[in-house]
Amino acid sequence: MPGSICDLLPSTAALLGVPGALDTLGLTESVGDVDRIMVVLVDGLGWHLLPDVVDDAPLLASVLTGGTGRLRQLRCTFPSTTPTSLVSLGTGAQPGQHGILGFTLNIPGTGRVLNHIRWRDEPPVDEWQPLPTWFDRLAHAGVKARALLPEWFIGSGLTEAAYHGALFVPTHADDDYAQRMIDELRATPGLVYGYTADLDTMAHVFGVGSPEWHEAAARIDALLTRLAESLPANAALLVTADHGGFNVAADARIDMDADPRLAAGVRVVAGEPRVRYLHTQPGATADVVATWSELLAGCADVHTREQAVAAGLFGPVSPALLPRIGDVVVVCTGGWAVLATGHEPPESARLVGFHGASSAAEMDIPLIEIL
Description:
Helix content is 33%, strand content 23%.
């Protein structure tokens, strides 16, 4: 079985000598004796997309053929979406424990839908995501942990939920990001964490395989090459991702707000196009399940909340977090997506690339180790 994104920071912490940290990925054996580690998360660099980037990415091409570093497969958590994955990475916990159970979630007891990317003040972070992060644990163990993030990320709810305890180093668009990462790594032992959204942004806006996506892959490969070439002798570079993805064809998009039968009985819509959470009107759950199961047969698996939890989609779920999951959970299969044009900004329906569901193309991610 592949390891999980949840295993990466505990294994890294064990490598850096944090008491109680378990190296379930075996980094101590494969990486060896180092006192500083750089972890870079490339948003959207799914395992199954690696062959598609090799013409633009000499370093990743060499990794894929075994010429550079070590490559192995991990899995992200479900839903395969950035907020969920980042908090799974940061806490080492399954979504059913940390509570960031999707891209957007209904705040229980309200009609409000929280977009985790835009989350700032409410709800309070320590209430919405109360678990400690591995950045907290590193800091408490006296291991310096730095996160180099765009300035506007710092102070957001998602950043605090995923990386609380890190020393945040703000970056700007005109910075030499690679050099700043290298300088931090050389300055002090410990962990240096970096993140790039470039590839995922191009996948969403222009599509996987588009010229813009290939150009982003080349930029990321250049970044990783500089980092790899500048590693001190006592350091390792670990590269991973938060999810994969693919393009959804125009004729594989179902707009729930264009069909009154799909909108009937639904009170609040959350999630995202590949995984929908439907919070139903009182007494309407069974009818919504029946209608969606019939109309989306062959396009999606339709579960009640209880069925989705029992199937283990989110890992064990804390009882207090159950209301965040829809009364009905719709998981798209194949290449389908469910739009909600009456509930979400119009730009959501214009995206080309998607992810979020449980297919291998969305869930499988790489772990690249370079010394």
